[in-house]
Amino acid sequence: MLTAALDLIAEEGVAGVSRRKTAACAGVPLRSMTYHFTGIDEMLPEAFWGYADHVVAVFDRHLAGTATPEEAREAVTDLIHTLSGGPRRDLILVQELYTPAARSEPYRALCARWMRRSRALLESHFPPESARQVDALIEGLTLHRALDDDPPERPVTREAVGRITGA
């Protein structure tokens, strides 16, 4: 059901999602949605949290096994290029989460928890302030690379990561 909710968010935006549409997309009876979620305000954060888990797992896969700062920098470069070249759905989902986060404390808290998790992974390779900056760089460069008609190539990404991490 949560995957169906994310699919709908990617297709129609948060405003276009309802329990009825989600149930139809998931191929389950509407009463099943009512059993699991009291309302859309309970379902959407759960769906976004599942998406955050997915992105954190992508971070973890890229950073796992890196032993040196240089390997970590290269892993971050790979991560940015992987995320920016990934499914359009993922780019849309991130942006759809940011909109309610700008207006609603529960979504802002969800984003803050997500950022703490990604930064914790980065902090195993970089000092805390650098990890915070790298996390922001990942978000920004991913978005810019995904939307730019002439996105920066790997050497530019690698240089930006190196500048932040003191290479």
From TrEMBL:
Region annotation Disordered: where it falls in the sequence: 147-167
Annotated SUPFAM superfamilies: Homeodomain-like (SSF46689), Tetracyclin repressor-like, C-terminal domain (SSF48498)
Domain HTH tetR-type: start-end pairs: 1-55
Compositionally biased intervals (Basic and acidic residues): 147-161
Keyword line: DNA-binding, Transcription, Transcription regulation
UniProt DNA-binding region: 18-37
Keyword Iron-sulfur listed: no
Any one Pfam family match given in the protein's UniProt record, by short name: TetR_C_31
Name of the featured protein: TetR family transcriptional regulator
Source organism (scientific name): Streptomyces thermocarboxydus
